[in-house]
Amino acid sequence: MSKQRKVLGRSLKNFPSSILAQEETSDSVVFTLASGLKAEFNMISIPHHDIKDQTWVRFEVNGRDQNALTMEEVGDIMRTIKHQQFFPAIAVKESDKFEILDGSRRRMAAIYQGVDLKILYTEQKLSIDDAKQLAKDIQTAKEHSLREVGLRLILLKEHFKCDNKTLAKKEGLSESKVTRSLQAAAVPHDFVVLFPSQSALSYADYKYLFDLSVQLQGLDISISSFCLDVKDNINQLDIDNEEDLKSQIVKVIKIQFALVSEKKQDTKIVTEKLWDFDAKDCYARKKTKGRSISYEFNRIPKNLQSKIDEAVKYVLESELRQ
């Protein structure tokens, strides 16, 4: 007796029972919203050439950083969506456009692969709270990255005007999770996009990048120009493994920072005071910039100027004349 073949993917019955109402057909489903209202969702297929124009994603609701959705980041979906989309995206239709509540990774995978996108949509106007809770309840994609959590927390922190401790309590998170997430979100975008798969970045990686941004600012080095130089070197890497590629990119960044920081030290001007004068506008100082040395004097007596000139000439004559 042969075993029954397990069916891959999901059907409409796979939605959480807490939000799934009884009314259901093969192409529609009714969800119970956080407010207690019910909304009917119907199935539609968006042609691949219309996905960009007819669909959009709002970070405040979806919680997914769209700038992070590179081909590498959605590679797992791209491998299957070309043949079958197991689970539809969830959207709200308004003014002939579909706002994706859940399924933004499927949306980008469909765009990259040039395939149609299946969507379950409602034309019922949802409150921002209902939309956010529905997106959270039916989320089927991989867990949001630490940075994405941080970006969402920044919006909430600005909205509630609260500190990290209060924010952690409101969101049911530990204070350390809030702190780490906010620090990950504070990493400049130029750094983050250097990594094809940002989900591979750990807290330690984000902390290093954040600290690096502070160091570069302290050295007055442009982060954007620094990242452009790093990107040129990254393009020469030929590594398929996600974790190995991340490690090599971090290594490239560290090498580049060592180069620019050393160069910056060479161009840094070091000023040394040679004498303390009673008058504030009088000074005698030495400036060193790399291998260049200069002496500066201001408002010193003429007889002292003459003696300094004579002393300099005497030293040069005695030391350099053969």
Summarize the structure.
The chain is an alpha+beta fold and 322 residues long. 45% of the residues lie in helices and 19% in strands. This is Chromosome partitioning protein ParB.
Description of the structure:
- With 322 residues, the chain is α+β, with helices and mostly antiparallel strands.
- The chain folds into 4 domains: 12-142, no CATH class; 143-186; 189-267; 269-320, no CATH class.
- It contains 13 helices and 10 strands.
- The protein has helices spanning 51-54, 59-62, 75-81, 104-113, 128-137, 146-160, 164-171, 175-185, 189-192, 203-218, 223-234, 242-267, 302-320; strands at residues 20-25, 28-32, 38-46, 55-56, 89-94, 97-102, 117-122, 269-275, 283-289, 292-298.
- Strands 1-2-3-7-5-6-4 form a 7-stranded mixed β-sheet. A 3-stranded antiparallel β-sheet has the order 8-9-10, with no helix packed on it.
- The termini are far apart.
- GO terms for molecular function: DNA binding.
- This is Chromosome partitioning protein ParB.
- It comes from Aliivibrio fischeri.
| Gyration radius, rounded | 31 Å
The helix content is 40-55%
**Domains counted in the coordinates: how many?**
4
Q: Strand-and-helix sequence, N→C? A: EEEHEHHEEHEHHHHHHHHEEEH
State the distance separating the first and last CA atoms. 105 Å
Report the strand count.
Answer: 10
Count of DSSP helices? 13
- Average pLDDT taken over every residue: 83
Strand content: 15-25%
From the structure provided, what is the oligomeric state, counting identical versus distinct chains?
A: single chain
Global outline = elongated
SSE class: alpha+beta
Summarize the main sheet.
7 strands, mixed
Strand numbers in spatial order across the main sheet: 1-2-3-7-5-6-4
Uncertain parts? 1-25
Family: Belongs to the ParB family.
Organism: Aliivibrio fischeri (Vibrio fischeri)
Protein name: Chromosome partitioning protein ParB
Keywords: DNA-binding
